[in-house]
């Protein structure tokens, strides 16, 4: 994929956040690769341009938070970089909250144990649902964060939809204009 130089993810724990490494060890699925990248290029547009990865093969993990009866509910949304999550419609209804927003950066980092710009659905708190757009599942391969800004994971899209806590949600995302 592009000019990434990948190898089995568990062979390079230095490219994984601790919760990601632990989750990969317990999940034990073949096909998850990792590649080193320049941490300054971790943001999607810069990463795709530098490493030749098409936007429709790059998936973003967005952490959202909403309250219901004084309890904050979190979820991760996994969608292609060519789409935008329907946060105020589909996601809000799915989580059964009145108001939903993107989690604050400091909050997301503290709760996940991952670096901002590298947050991935692998290794998130187990009570958080992982909402996956069907386009991710249908992709032959997707690149996602590795929990740190200096690494990226590559895996089959179908495998991303099989993550513990993952649920494919129709209408989760809409194509960007």
UniProtKB/TrEMBL annotation:
Q: Which InterPro entries match?
A: YbaK/aa-tRNA-synt-asso_dom_sf, YbaK/aa-tRNA-synth-assoc-dom
The record places domain YbaK/aminoacyl-tRNA synthetase-associated at 41-158
Please state what the protein is called.
Prolyl-tRNA editing enzyme YbaK/EbsC (Cys-tRNA(Pro) deacylase)
């Amino acid at each position: 994929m592009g000019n990434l130089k990948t190898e089995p993810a568990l062979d390079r724990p230095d490219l994984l956040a601790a919760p990601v490494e632990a989750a990969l060890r317990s999940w034990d699925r073949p096909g998850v690769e990792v590649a080193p990248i320049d941490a300054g290029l971790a943001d999607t547009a810069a990463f795709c341009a530098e490493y030749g990865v098409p936007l429709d093969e790059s998936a973003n993990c967005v952490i959202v938070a909403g309250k219901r009866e004084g309890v904050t509910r979190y979820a991760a949304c996994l969608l292609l970089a060519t789409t935008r999550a329907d946060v105020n419609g589909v996601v809000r209804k799915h989580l059964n909250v009145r108001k939903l927003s993107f989690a604050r950066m400091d909050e997301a980092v503290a709760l996940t144990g991952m670096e901002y710009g590298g947050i991935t659905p692998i290794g998130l708190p187990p009570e958080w649902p992982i909402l996956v757009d069907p386009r991710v599942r249908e992709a032959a391969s997707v690149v996602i964060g590795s929990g740190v800004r200096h690494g990226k994971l590559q895996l089959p899209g179908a495998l991303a939809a099989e993550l513990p806590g993952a649920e494919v949600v129709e209408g989760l995302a809409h194509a960007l204009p």
